[in-house]
Amino acid sequence: MYRSCNALSSKYMTTFSDFPPPKEYTPFMSQKTIIEYLTNYAETFDLKKYITFNTNVITIEKNEEEEGKDRYWKVILEKEDCPKVDEYFDYVMVCIGMFNKPKTPEYPGLDSFDGIKIHGNQYRDATPFINKRVIVVGGAFTAGDISCDISRVSDEVYLSMRHGTYVIPRVVNGHPYDLQILKRSTFRKTVSKFEAFAEYFYKNRIPDYKEIGLQNTQPFIGNCSVMVNDDIQDHIYQGRLEPVNNIQEFKGNDVVLTDGTVLKDIDAVIFATGYQYGIPIVDKSLIYGNADYAQLYKYVFPVTSMNPDRIAMIGIMEYLSTTWPAWEMQARWACKVFTGKIPLPTKEDMIKDIEKNPKYIGTAAQYVVALPYLDDIAEFIGVKPNFWKLLISDPKLAYAFEYGPMFPYFYRLQGPNAWSGARDAIMNAKDNLTYGTRRYRANIKN
Fold first, then answer.
1. What is the 3-state secondary structure (H, E, C) of the chain?
2. How confident is the prediction for the chain on average, in pLDDT?
3. Cβ 170 vs Cβ 433: under 8 Å
4. Does pTM top 0.85 for this prediction?
5. Which of 221, 229, 265, 419 is most buried, judging by how many CB atoms fall within 10 Å of its CB?
6. How many other C-beta atoms can be found within 10 angstroms of the C-beta atom of residue 7?
7. Per DSSP, what are the bridge partners of residue 332?
8. Cα–Cα distance between 229 and 201 in angstroms, integer?
9. Mean pLDDT, residues 162-188 taken together
10. Which long-range contacts (CB under 8 A, 24 or more apart) does 51-56 make?
């Protein structure tokens, strides 16, 4: 994680459902506070004793050996004090996510370029790029962050894009954008109404993208060239950053663009070009079987396994929202399945469900819409609130549920592992959101 990184979603959407961030945190957490939050979570729930640090998982495979024959899975590990060791487990959660295999485009002549060449996941800070001429390739979140970060110290920064981008600021009309978008009422809009609603956000600060060279040739819906960024417009206007067309080829350290422009004497290229979909620590057949798309029930349980209730894939999807609530919901479901408290449907029914849902094909992934997916799994677990029951028992909470932000705490109001602090976390979120930014001058009167 690069040092200048800040969360793309606000703090109460970047959280576990039974552990709100302290109100002292600013609305969008920094790299430092995210690490602090995760550390506090692990310490509060005494998780460190269950974690083996400095260990790489090489592969996971079905156990067919005499040793550990009572365990279903063999996991081959690489530890500090031992180059290779086999361990055996009854159940496995694969939680490495999708972003583990960087995708770098190929260009004619790239081998002739002798400057710095890195992928965005290797970037840590702008120090190596002081007074350099840099091209950042990409049109999404990381490309925006890195190009703005480097432009403060570099000689020149070019942002090379194929299609342009859409830019959503973190704060729109004084409120975090995600708390305005991620509501149940939003997901009931028709496609045309949602497009108009989305336009309100991505045109909030940039009414005309052509004026700053970021115009996107693709529609917003289903587009992967979107960034949450507060600085890019200013950096372009200040001459720190220049958007340019896609790269056609490299000629040594000169870069030729598709419009014929030649950028001379480039010192560094950073590829913020995403990741290939893949789970390298398990055999491809476990995910795909004989199909060309992933055979994962609800994007979690591989139906190709003889025992799909013994392995769960956590975070193996593109999710149209902040991802933390989805990861946690998947993990809660997997725990209930592993312990036998919630059975999976028959394999035939799971396959039918896979067929009717968006599919991962090859190395590409379809996006999963946030609310229907969360509610779907919450119903399996028994933690989805019922609006009509809430309306009778707690009208204020019912209104917050139906018309307010989709805080993950809603899924701790009832059912297994309910949390007594969930209601307060929901009702106090608005006041606590900006406590960290206003507290220093709270006693100053106008």
1. CCCCCECCCCCCCCCECCECCCCCCCCCCEHHHHHHHHHHHHHHCCCHHHCCCCEEEEEEEECCCCCCCCCCEEEEEEECCEEEEEEEECCEEECCCCCCCECCCCCCCHHHCCCEEEEHHHCCCCHHHCCCEEEEECCCHHHHHHHHHHHCCCCEEEEECCCCCEEECCEECCEEHHHHHCECCHHHCCHHHHHHHHHHHHCCCCCCHHHHCCCCCCCCCCCCCEEECCCHHHHHHCCCEEEECCEEEEECCEEEECCCCEECCCCEEEECCCECCCCCCECHHHHHCCCCECCEECCCEECCCCCHHHEEECCCCEEECCCHHHHHHHHHHHHHHHCCCCCCCCHHHHHHHHHHCCCCECCECCEEEHHHHHHHHHHHHCCCCCHHHHHHHCHHHHHHHHHCECCHHHHHCCCCCCCCCHHHHHHCHHHHHCHHHHHHHCCCCC
2. 90
3. no
4. yes
5. 229
6. 23
7. none
8. 12
9. 89
10. 52/79, 54/79, 54/80, 55/79, 55/80
Q: Is the dihedral of CA 227, 233, 239, 243 positive or negative?
A: positive
Structure tokens at 412: 């701790």
Whether the Cβ atoms of residue 312 and residue 334 lie closer than 8 Å to each other: yes
Q: Cα–Cα distance between 91 and 338 in angstroms, integer?
A: 7
Residues 361 and 292 sit within 8 Å (Cβ to Cβ): yes
| CA-to-CA separations, 40 to 93, 177, 309, 424, in angstroms, rounded | 22, 27, 31, 20
For residues 257 and 160, is the Cβ–Cβ distance under 8 A?
yes
Asked whether the predicted pLDDT for residue 287 surpasses 90, the reply is: no
Structure tokens belonging to residue 149: 């970060």
Q: Report the DSSP pairing between strands 73-79 and 82-89.
A: antiparallel
**Which pLDDT value is given to residue 444?**
61
Determine how β-strand 55-62 pairs with β-strand 73-79. Answer: antiparallel
Instruction: Give the integer Cα–Cα distance in Å for 211 and 244.
Output: 13
pLDDT tens, 320-376?
A: 677 899 999 999 999 999 999 999 999 999 999 988 876 544 444 556 777 888 999
**Measuring CA to CA, which residue among 414, 318, 332, 430 is closest to residue 370?**
318
Select from 105, 109, 137, 104 the least CA-distant residue to 254: 109
What's the token pair of residue 236? Answer: 């372009």
Q: Quick one: tokens of 19? A: 């552990």
Give every CB contact of residue 82 below 8 A, 6+ residues apart in sequence: none
